[in-house]
Amino acid sequence: MDSRDPGSRTGWLTAVFWTVTAAFAYVLLGLLFPWAWLPYLGSGLALTYLWWKRRHRGRYSVLFGATCAFFALMAVGVSGAALLVPVSLPVDSVGPRRVDCGSVVDRVPADELTVTTGDSNEPAVQSRSIPQGSLERKCSDWLDGRGGRAAGLALIGLFVGARATGHFVRSDGVRSVGVPASSV
Known about the structure:
By secondary structure, the protein is mainly α. The protein has helices spanning 11-28, 37-54, 61-84, 132-168; strands spanning 87-90, 97-102, 115-117. It has four helices and three strands; from the N terminus they run H-H-H-E-E-E-H. A three-stranded antiparallel beta sheet has the order 1-2-3, with helices on one face. Strand 1 and strand 2 form a beta hairpin.
C-alpha cells in the first residue's frame, strides 16, 4: 500500500495565481502595459474560482491564511492611503519649487494651484512664470496615475483576501475554529 501524499490539487493554480499577481504588481509600478488590469481581473477571477473549487486544508493552511490576510490588509491600507494622502510635486527637475495638488479624492482646483518653495505655503518668487495649464496637467496626470495604481492595489488585496478566507474555511463548509458556516 502506497501512503505517499499525491501532492496538492491546487499547486499549479497557486503558482499561476502568484505569477500573474507578481506580473500585475509590475504593471502598477509602470513597468508593463497600463491596460493589463483587464486580463488580471479576468485571470484573477478564474484562478480564484478554480482554487476555491479544488482547495483543501493542508498542514500549513492557517499560516498561509494569516500571511495572505496580512498582505491583503496591507494592500487595501496602502491603497486607501494613496487615495487620501495629499501630494506635493516638484515643479523643476532641480530646485525647491513645488506645487500642492491635493489628493486623489480631494484635488486642489486648477485655479488655486500655486508654486511654493520648500515646506512653506508662501508663493514662490519666480523669474519666469509657469503656465497654470502646465501645473494643472502635471497634477492631473500624477493624481490619475496614482488613483489607477491604488485601484489596482485594491484589486490585488481583494484576490489575496479571497485566498486568505479560503485558507481559513474548510472545503466542507466548516470554519477553522470548528463552527459550521451555516450556523454563523
